[in-house]
Design a protein that fits this description.
Blueprint (H helix, E strand, L loop, with lengths): L8 H20 L5 H6 L6 H12 L2 H4 L2 H8 L2 H6 L1 H21 L4 H9 L1 H34 L3 H49 L2 H6 L15 H17 L1 H8 L4 H32 L8 H4 L6 H39 L5 H22 L6 H15 L1 H9 L5 H21 L9 H19 L2 H7 L1
Length: 467
């Protein structure tokens, strides 16, 4: 069965888009300085913080890649397993959230500089920008899929429109305007997914109707993947989440420790609801639309459901995609402004100048994100690349700041360079041998280099004297 566009769905997408724009403009008027723009004035309460954590993490990576593409391409069990790294990551962040807030930094690079020095900050900023523009790029494609389904326009044209919308909303009000729209999007999406889930299975003929129309291997534990290949899909999201600057900034923007802890519990519960729902909907889509792009699996179901249900689901998918794109674009722009321009070229910049530069960087990085997506054939591929660049390049060195007192600057910087270099070598130069995602190679290399170089360059006698 092919996907036929349904222009009526565009009304739902358009209406929700208008709501997001109005909210964005309203809250942007409350931005008075750079802290408002980047950390929402450190005033996010539990409800809004829960929503923004949930919406930021569940973007096109889940709607077009992640659980959706895994369920469509490999089966229901691999898709459900994609939830595990997120749950583990949230648990670990729960433990270190007070330390994150105590650092009081705008960026992860600032935390790394406090431990490893200025060089680490510059390297980390480059890594974050490389990863985050990739993440933003497939949010733009996700919107291209939505506009293709609703209007029949090409995915390429829809991606351009998506890019303009994401850039606009990110640039007008920063986190001060992004966070409230995130919260609305998150809770709206939970409701939409749980209306959609039973509906699509009724349409598909129930569980038996679905399983009879998918390949037999899609009901096995790993689908057509080997255990090592499956691990290659699970690890990137875990190590991105553990070091994700977006999440660190949100935790730092809370009103206090209690709000942050409650919000993380809400985030965990939300993921337990959202992730399996997306997986099962995409799995049903595989039986109805066996020949579509895997990234369109969830959104394609909107065309066979009653218009009002399909419209609500598509609007919620739009909301998730836009909010994630806004967040990662804003975060990357923060790195350019504070970790590169203000540190190297404009050390005497006023707060007003920094705010203006951040907005300009949002626009320039948004354009770069649009250019990047043309180099990757699927959303899932660019997702795994971006996650690994970040997870292998930054996370081992970042976690060591919190958990290993002995780690030194040489070890941390060497680990960052080794993680990124191995990722780029495996993905681009070697073209992903054995169909293994680069995280299987790059992450162990980064961890080993971190440990070995630290032990080889530290002075035990001096450490003992300090202790």
């Amino acid at each position: 069965m092919g996907v036929e566009s349904n222009p009526a769905l565009l009304w739902f997408v358009g209406a929700y888009g208008v709501i997001m724009i109005i909210m964005g403009i309203y809250y942007s008027r409350k931005v008075s300085n750079s802290e408002d723009f980047i950390l929402a004035g450190k005033g996010l309460g539990t409800f809004v913080l829960t929503g923004t954590l949930l919406a930021t993490w569940t973007g096109s990576g889940s709607i077009s890649g992640g659980e959706t593409s895994m369920a469509f391409t490999y089966g229901i069990i691999p898709a459900l397993l994609m939830m595990l790294p997120t749950l583990v990551g949230i648990g670990i962040l729960y433990l270190i959230a007070p330390k994150i807030r105590d650092f009081g930094k705008y960026t992860v690079s600032g935390i790394l500089e406090a431990k490893y020095g200025t060089t680490a900050r510059i390297i980390a900023s480059v890594i974050i920008i490389l990863a985050f523009v990739g993440i933003v790029s497939y949010q733009m494609t996700g919107l291209g899929f939505i506009l293709n389904i609703t209007t029949g326009m090409s995915v390429e044209l829809g991606t351009i429109i998506g890019a303009v919308l994401i850039i606009f909303l990110a640039s007008i009000g920063g986190l001060r305007s992004v966070a409230p729209t995130d919260a609305l999007s998150a809770f709206f999406a939970v409701a939409a997914l749980f209306i959609t889930l039973p509906t699509i299975y009724i349409i598909a003929g129930g569980w038996d109707g679905v399983t009879n129309n998918v390949p037999a291997e899609h009901l096995t534990a790993t689908g057509t993947l080997s255990n090592v290949q499956l691990l290659g899909f699970l690890l990137p999201s875990l190590f991105l989440l553990l070091g994700d600057q977006n999440m660190y900034q949100r935790l730092a923007s809370s009103r206090g420790g209690k709000s942050a802890k409650k919000a993380q519990i809400g985030w965990l519960i939300g993921m337990l609801l959202i992730s399996p729902a997306i997986s099962f909907i995409a799995f049903a889509s595989r039986s109805i639309f066996p020949n579509i792009d895997p990234g369109m699996a969830l959104m394609a179901t909107t065309t066979v459901m009653p218009t009002i249900i399909g419209g609500i689901l598509l609007a919620s998918a739009t909301a998730f995609i836009i909010t994630t794109g806004n967040s990662y674009l804003l975060s990357a722009a923060t790195n350019v402004t504070y970790d590169i321009i203000a540190k190297r070229f404009k050390k005497d910049a006023t707060d007003k100048q920094l705010l203006g530069m951040t907005k300009l960087c949002v626009i320039l990085l948004g354009i770069l994100s649009y250019i990047i997506i043309s180099y990757f054939p699927t959303v899932l591929e660019v997702q795994m690349y971006a996650y690994t660049v970040y997870g292998a390049g930054l996370t081992p060195a970042l976690l060591a700041v919190f958990f290993w007192k002995r780690v030194n600057a040489t070890g941390g910087i060497s680990s960052m360079i080794a993680g990124v270099a191995t990722t780029l070598l495996w993905e681009i130069v070697l073209d992903k041998p054995f169909e293994l995602n680069s995280v299987i190679i790059a992450l162990p290399v980064a961890v080993i280099v971190l440990i070995v170089v630290t032990l080889a360059t530290s002075d035990p006698a001096k450490e003992k004297e300090v202790g």
